[in-house]
Amino acid sequence: MARPRNCRWVEILPNVTYFKPRGIPLSALQEVILTVDEFEALRLADLEGLYQEQAAEKMRVSRQTFGRIIESAHRKVADALIQGKALKIEGGEFEMAETRRFRCADCQHTWELPYGTGRPESCPSCKSINIHRADGVRGTKGSGRGQRRGCLRP
Ligand SMILES: [Zn+2]
Q1: Which pLDDT belongs to residue 137?
Q2: Looking at residues 59-77, what average pLDDT do you find?
Q3: How is the chain split into domains, by residue range?
Q4: What is the Å distance from ligand 1's center to 106 Cα?
Q5: Is residue 6 scored above 80 in pLDDT?
Q6: 8 with 93: CB under 8 angstroms?
Q7: DSSP H helical segments within the chain, as ranges?
Q8: Which of 93, 7, 102, 124 is nearest to 58 (CA)?
Q9: Mean pLDDT of 109-132
Q10: CA of residue 4 to ligand 1 center, whole Å
Q11: How far is the CA of 78 from the centre of ligand 1 (A)?
Q12: From the CA of 138, how far away is ligand 1's center (Å)?
């Protein structure tokens, strides 16, 4: 089985996938498409503040590849903001990274964390410490290219 050429691991899918400037009619609106891997690069580098080496490691790509992804992402976001275009997040070459799922016994909130981040101390919703692993329901977000098959480093 061939390894996908551009296998980029993504931990979190966007909750909001469309941003639109106010007051511009749809017919006059131009769209910029930001791919999910570019979105993930922005999240890791600009929101979490990781160094590019660390972010590249998380996405399972080379530092050079990460540099290209983040550069493209920055250019697209700047284009949308400055030119007043809509921003749509979709597509791209990526696989969902494996996650662990937790459930709060008090408020029933469930959430996922990537492997290697340690066990959470409390429920992010109600702060209860009565939390449990809730695995076996993985992959319910339905996206990416299916499983992480073939996504290992050479
Ligand atoms: Zn809770």
Answers
A1: 42
A2: 97
A3: 9-95, 98-133
A4: 5
A5: no
A6: yes
A7: 36-42, 52-59, 63-83
A8: 7
A9: 86
A10: 39
A11: 38
A12: 20
- Ligand 1 centroid to Cα of residue 83, in Å, is 42
Dihedral sign, CA of 8, 31, 87, 139? negative
- Number of Cα atoms under 13 Å in the Cβ half of residue 69: 32
Distance 119 CA to ligand 1 centre (A): 15
pTM, 2 dp = 0.66
User: How far apart are the CA of 15 and the centre of ligand 1, in A?
Assistant: 20
Q: Tokens in use for 17?
A: 């996938």
User: Cα dihedral sign for 68, 43, 73, 143?
Assistant: positive
Tokens of 145: 């290219």
CA end-to-end distance (rounded Å), the chain: 13
CA torsion 23-25-31-37 (nearest 10°) is: 50
Name the band, by pLDDT with cuts 50, 70 and 90, for residue 135. Answer: low
Alpha-carbon Rg for the chain in angstroms: 18
pLDDT score recorded for residue 147: 41
Distance of CA 105 from the midpoint of ligand 1 (Å): 7
User: How do residues 35-61 score in pLDDT, each as one tens digit?
Assistant: 999 999 999 999 999 999 999 999 999
